[in-house]
Amino acid sequence: IEGCVRHISVHAAGVVISPEPLTNYVPLQYDPKGKAIITQYDMYAVGEDGVGLTKFDFLGLRNLAILAQAVRLVKKIHQIDIDLETIPLDDKKTFALLAHGDTIGLFQLNGTGMTRWLKELKPTTIHDINAMVALYRPGPMQFIPDFIDRKYHPEKIKYLDPALEPILKQSYGILVYQDDLLMMAHDLAGYSWGEVDKFRKAVGKKIPELMAEQRDKFIKGCMEHSGWSEKKATEIWKWLEPFAAYGFNKAHSASYGRVAYQTAYMKANYPGEFMTAVLSAESGDTEKVAEIIHECGRLGLPVLPPDVNESFADFGLIKAKSANEQDRIRVGLATIKNMGVDIAEAIVEERKARGPYRSLASFLERVSHKNLNKKALEALIKAGALDSFGQDRGAMLANLDQLAEYHRENSQTNKNQDSLFGVIADQSTIPSLTLRPAEPSTKKERLAWEKELLGLYVSGHPLDDYREQFANAKQTIASVSKLRDGNLIIIGGIIEEVKPILTKRGDRMAFVRLADFADTIETVCFADVYARHQAIIVPDSCVAIKGRVSYRGGEPSVIIEGIKPLAPIATTNDSGSSENPVLQS
Hints:
The protein is of the alpha+beta class. It has helices spanning 43-46, 62-78, 92-100, 112-121, 126-135, 144-152, 165-168, 178-187, 193-205, 208-225, 230-240, 250-269, 271-281, 286-298, 341-354, 360-366, 374-383, 393-398, 400-410, 443-454, 467-472, 527-533, 581-584; strands at 14-17, 28-30, 37-39, 54-57, 303-304, 316-318, 328-330, 488-502, 508-515, 520-525, 542-550, 557-565, 571-572, 578-579.
């Protein structure tokens, strides 16, 4: 059975194209899920080395949907038509944003490493962005410092031969793109374009035998076409050969660089609209949404809990009505757990048709959707979507049965039906909605409900009491990825999840997910530490941990050596400034 096909796999984006019906060239079948037609030949047999058909990979980018949504919002709010294909490529706001490192939400340019290099590079043209897209990968990354240095010190730009200048001038004399390699083969070694394509194949597929053939051909070509000595031609080949292993296609870099620039342009010029679109696109990923909400706060764009009088089905931007107000983003009603899109849209459509809901009773009477049941009402209450009516969430939850009954009896669906009050001639005598007294909800309960229904904290954060201490802390979760394996670190946060497991010896240890205002990290608590501190290693505990950075498995984590509860009261040092001894010790 060795060598036989053991399973059928489908390329996520690969599409085969033929000049005639595919059945003239390849056998077909349904994929294992039965939803698509696929070839029975594998990618090698169906391509140019096999049957000879053309295979394209069609990639879908979420960022294109984000840009389209941001453009729609700008049109709706400002009545401005933005054509992303004709935006100026020298926008000062855009390059200032990149130089400042405001990259969260951008395509290809976000992430700690890329952001650090962009702040050093301070790009001034889209060509700088294209080059960074190509260089920020294993291999060419080693040339980024040299690329930045040459940008600001042109006197350091050097060429092995003046003939290389026209090809490499735009990238400051550094070999960045595969296309530059191909131009050298054509212009310097005298390759025909057909021979250049064979050279591309040898380079792109990193085939040693083909590269060895190309070496002799390239050196001989440079000697004959450019009049170089064998020594000079060999020197050029040795210089470019290592690049063959990681050369990046220029068209790919330029395409990605353009989309990256477009996202940066929209964020720099229309931050509210752009960040709203990013939140909508990432709404299923709570970690991403938490990061984006933190970025919105930094930009002066508060993200508020859902509200039946302001929210749309998806995340929505509420523009400031006066100079004293600020733009704000409302969480969408459809993002609430147990709230379907149909109910959310019904609430929004009724508000658009007849104006804001004036009271809780008005809301229950006017929204007639059959799925606005007890479960949906509970979700709206817990998520804070009914807070604007002045009722406490705890009181509304305590009266949930009464609210559901009031909706059933008084919603528009039942206006023309007999009900409990159907025999009353004077409808003004219908009892008003009065809630019986109940214990008000606590901040801790409200935040827990938001986490449950929205997947994140919106109206506040369990760490708010320690915010000043975090602001003064020397290290945060974000610091972990900047440290080496084994480095000591002290960080604080709230425990989101604890996964206890048994070791081979039968001892209990745990994997603990810790989160602060912007980031989360997996930490490991071995048996001895877990046994001593098990009482506080529980979800929702606000703690400070001391431990060692570990990159086992490639991802950064922290091995816990000590753990303490966070103290809500900061001490004051001799200079009068407050500091947290737990986070800074």
